[in-house]
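User: I'll paste a sequence; please echo it back and then give the predicted structure.

Assistant: Echoing your sequence first, then the prediction.
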Amino acid sequence: MQKGMHLDREHCVRAVQSKDARFDGWFFTAVLTTRIYCRPSCPVVPPKAENMTFYPSAAACQQAGFRACKRCRPDTSPGSPEWNQRADLVARAMRLIADGVVDREGVPGLAARLGYSPRQVERQLLAELGAGPLALARAQRAQTARLLIETTPLPMAEIAFAAGFSSIRAFNDTVREVFALSPSDLRVRAPHKSTSHTPGALSLRLPFRAPLNPDNLFGHLAATAVPGVEEWRDGAYRRTLRLPYGHGIAALTPKPDHIACRLTLSDLRDLPVAISRCRRLLDLDADPVAVDDQLRTDPFLAPLVDKAPGRRVPRTVDEPEFAVRAVLGQQVSTAAARTHAARLVTAHGTPVDDPEGGLTHLFPSPEALAALDPDSLAMPRTRRTTFTTLVAQLADGTLHLGAESDWAEARARLLALPGFGPWTVDVIAMRALGDPDAFLPTDLGIRRAARELGLPGTPAALTARAAAWRPWRAYAVQYLWATDSHPINFLPV
């Protein structure tokens, strides 16, 4: 599995013939005789090899005139792992498109965030994905429309605008072209009906590549949950979301073959962004087979991987929020960090209504935190300086942390802040920026695990040993942390 995999015809044909679900989202199979495109694991009888052609994205298939298969529903495949393991222009652009930037700001807005011209962005996306930003955004709108059609009773006109279409006609034409069915026919054929009775709530399934070990993923989120913003309830992790058009509440429940997701949104136009951020939070587009195979090459890590494969990196839905929380967590316990964060939420967070109760606020924005009185912060003076400098730079745009961030540049800017050492920078890189190779050699839990396993004990020696784990050192951190009995490593009961 590698960049440009759709160009390796022999590899792709074998994956399709074996119906290998691990490759879903890596490439798409278009059938020349039927003009239909599928995911590699499509359950139908595979076409003859000479009738297959391969594309790197659903948008490229659609641009070439192929329609989505009604059996395997390729538009619902997990996303390509490429966009979460790379920090180049194309990967950053794909993360922003998934976050709805093209629909809100157009291609010029996308290019401006990336620091390139629209022409450069268009050229690179076409070269690698066979589709430009508008086509990629259109494919995402089609997927959102299908989801709303199949899971809500909303009128088609409301769905059209909620999915990001500029007109009813564009909505109808796109749905017919992509799915070979009218919107009404899609609703009639819907395999699942919505069971939600909460106004504005949607229930959906988030796919992932197996295996997925939920223990450390949900354990970490639940153990570090900030009261009012996050909670664990009835087997689900719930949290509030700050979204472009309003706010939302997500409830995420691990299931054997998917994550059950219930979204309550104040504005349905935020649906694709909310889904994208939930997927990113749970690292659902990762390729666990590639990660675990690499880590198994180390005889000290192999038993940990074999015992509980498929660990993910718990990430975030809000990069600035996580950076603030990382500072609050410097040199204090998990409980103390939660207490500090909860005080900020109560004093400066935005109140929200939770139909189920339990959640009360959005985490405070950088602008709100920059306006607070520093003397009100119950923390040492040096950490107070670290906090106020961080939120001031986040608020005025001097420091920007987001899906489009260049990881190396963001690291350098963070390291230049007072009170930011390697641990704080690397934990932000790992969990907020999504760098799969971020490593924490000075972390006490990592050093303790290394000592127990017989790995080098000093940060320098451990970093040298961890070179063999690249580019997946952030996942090695999860396996090393899991040797401890801390609550972050266990699925809450």
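The first strand starts at residue 28 and ends at 31. The first helix runs from residue 9 to 17.
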